[in-house]
Specification:
With about 500 residues, the protein is an alpha+beta fold. Helices cover about 25% and strands about 25% of the residues.
Length: about 500
């Protein structure tokens, strides 16, 4: 962006930021409040629901000393952050009450940056958690898949294994995060029989190491009659692996696939740019057309609508960096989903709907139509000139995303075309034609399915999964803020 454009941007935003607080930039906050000061000012500018939080109002504090007095009442940055959110899930736990379910703050932005790229402390077991019954406090888990080259990949644990406890303690709503978030722990296994979870005396000890997960877990072709069905299991929108994703599509393209099944059932989301690229790989015939549109808070939107409205659009592309995309030019795609399919996964589904036929098979998705950016403690809230005294960073919700038709209201999740929930009793082997969800997709593609397969047995209430516990890996975020909002004048 040209320097003059940057100056216009900051001047424009200056009309809104801290109005009636003219001396805030001239008076430094005390050292004890510098993190809290950064949190308030970052949320005041960018938070999606800034107008709905009285303590974030532009005229809430007449001067910096008034803000300092307010901030001094919060000894922990996390407490202040939570208090400034609009109806957070921590304060509105009942279903349907919370508005902000996904804003996040971390004390170490290096860890945050790694997680957003698919790197984290991880033992390699990706799991789902379920309540034993609707009103139960007790939880059990099952293994969804094992990450290659992880500690778990060397242990006697596999997809479908059930566990009830950690270090001999039964998992419940109060202790599961503490027990499962330790770096070394022992999973206590159980047998599953007709809805009963029975400890079997077996256990597996796991150790978390720094692990980079390639989100392309399975990529193969299944032939059925005249159909060559490409199957891609993709578990995270991590930009570092966009080249590998493009290579996976090159493989499918070289084998002449006639149909595509995209498995997003365990994909909690990630980069908006990667989601746009994935949608472009599936298609290819819509380059430079609108894939999705961003809606920010009133202050940010006012600037863009006046100065650069095109910056609010995410366009179908034909490149990954300088490399051409390997696009399949599909006019129909089958997408497998579950309650764990969130944010950027939902964006792909919703963004494709105005252009091609999207057949969704599985469960309702999470219902996350909002995105975030990483905000640092710096003069422009970007990476440059970050405060060296701490590593706090925020990942607050700052925008809503809709598709080219303006549709984006799916807080209760995207509705499957064919509803089919996974069942612990019959998970099947991922990537094979007998796995229930993939089998259903194959049947629909070939016209051989007389009816949708239904899983027999008890369907337990979904509680959470590994990526949603982590929080950061259940985000939809912008890699770069449009039109230099976080750029300095340098």
């Amino acid at each position: 962006m040209k320097t003059s454009f940057k100056i216009i941007l900051l001047a424009f935003l200056g009309l809104f930021i801290f109005q009636s607080c003219e001396d805030m930039d001239d008076v430094a906050p005390p050292a004890s409040s510098e993190v809290n000061d950064f949190i308030w000012k970052g949320l005041n500018l960018y938070y999606l629901w800034q107008a709905d939080v009285p303590n974030l109002a532009d005229n809430r504090f007449a001067k910096q000393t008034d803000l300092n007095d307010f901030l001094s009442g919060y000894s922990k940055p996390e407490t202040l952050f939570e208090s400034l959110l609009y109806k957070p899930v921590s304060l509105y736990p009942k279903k349907g009450e919370a508005v902000d379910r996904f804003s996040w703050i971390v004390s170490d932005y290096l860890e945050l940056e790694g997680m957003l790229q698919g790197t984290s402390k991880n033992d390699g077991v990706d799991y789902g958690l379920y309540l034993k019954s609707t009103n139960s406090e007790e939880i059990f888990g099952y293994v969804r898949y094992i990450i290659p080259n992880s500690d778990a990949s060397t242990k006697a644990i596999k997809r479908g294994d059930v566990f009830y406890g950690v270090n001999g303690t039964q998992l419940n709503k109060s202790n599961y995060q503490t027990l499962l978030n330790t770096e070394n722990y022992t999973l206590n296994l159980a047998d599953y029989d007709n809805g009963k979870i029975t400890p079997n005396g077996k256990s597996v000890t796991l150790t978390k190491t720094v692990l980079a997960e390639n989100p392309v877990l399975i990529n193969n072709v299944i032939e059925s009659g005249t159909h060559k069905i490409g199957y891609l299991m993709y578990n995270g929108f991590y930009p570092n692996y966009d080249t590998q994703l493009n290579d996976a599509f090159a493989t499918l393209k070289s084998q002449g696939v006639t149909d595509l099944v995209l498995d997003l059932r365990y994909n909690g989301g990630g980069s908006v740019q990667t989601a746009t690229r994935l949608a472009s790989m599936i298609t290819g015939q819509f380059t430079d057309q609108v894939f999705s549109k961003q809606q920010w808070n009133a202050k940010i939107n006012a600037y863009f609508e006046s100065e650069n409205p095109e910056a609010l659009k995410n366009l179908f592309t034909n490149k990954v960096g300088a490399d051409p995309l390997n696009s399949l030019n599909m006019t129909k795609v089958y997408i497998l989903t579950s309650k764990s399919s969130a944010s950027a996964s939902e964006l792909v589904i919703n963004g494709l709907k105005p252009y091609i036929d999207v057949v969704q098979i599985g469960d309702y998705t999470t219902g996350k139509n909002v995105g975030s950016i990483t905000i640092y403690d710096s003069p422009t809230f970007g990476k440059e000139n970050r405060n060296p005294n701490h590593r706090y960073a925020m990942q607050p919700l700052v925008l809503k995303i809709v598709n080219a038709a303006g549709s984006g209201d799916y807080l209760n999740g995207l509705t499957p075309t064919y509803e089919l929930k996974e069942n612990v009793a019959n998970l099947g082997v991922l990537g094979t034609s007998t796995e229930p969800l993939l089998s259903t997709a194959i049947g629909k593609i070939t016209g051989t399915a007389k009816m949708i397969k239904t899983n027999k047995g008890i369907v337990f209430p979904y509680f959470e999964d590994k990526k949603s516990i982590n929080g950061v890996q259940n985000q939809m975020y912008l890699d770069k803020v449009p039109a230099g909002l976080l750029k300095s004048l340098d």
